[in-house]
Amino acid sequence: MQLDKQLTQNPEECKTLIEAKEKVQQFEEELIHEGVRRRMALEIDVQSWTKGNVGHPDSWIRIGNCDKRLPGSGIGCVCVDIGTGKVVKQLTFNLQATDTDIDEKFAYFLKSVNEDWLLIMCLHDEIQELGPSTVEILKQLGVSNDQIPLNENSFIYIGRPSKTKIDPYFACVCRGPNKGPCNVRRVVILDDDTSLTDVCSAKTSSVPPIIFESRTLSHTLDKHLKACSKETIAACQK
Question: For 50, which DSSP code?
Fold first, then answer.
């Protein structure tokens, strides 16, 4: 190892080694934690196909390669708690249905979404024109005028109500007829450190090793610290 070779050729003072070890330990802890967080990320894959599109008529909201969109025409909605990675709501609003209150129900749902949940929506097949109140709520969620869902336009939305366009996971796509289905993918890092610890401890054997051997740098510094007398080390640590 290059560090070991350099320390052997150019011995450092005990105090310098101790300070370096403390910084290295902090760096290793942060690197390991970030590595585990990324390995526990959620992969989200969304596709919207509408009646005006070519290709196979498929729409989906895949969370970790599992389709969570409930079947049916209209706007499919899935809410994910990105602290735990759990799907907390699944609804599909058939906005072509004879139910005259369906637009109001959709608007009520949008207003009821927890502001820290990740809201995922995609349009499948076709819909009727949305009411003014629903359009206004969508705008509050970061959907622009030219992205409002329309019949035969594919539509995908990913975002958190509390963050809208400043959300790093935010995406809103609306594609016109005959332009093919639209597809959006996101990788979401879990936010909740507690749930992350629980998941990691439960899945230790299934999590691939971090890209470097844990504590390698600390062990290298320890080796050279041992070359110092115990009295010198104690004096430096005071």
Answer: B
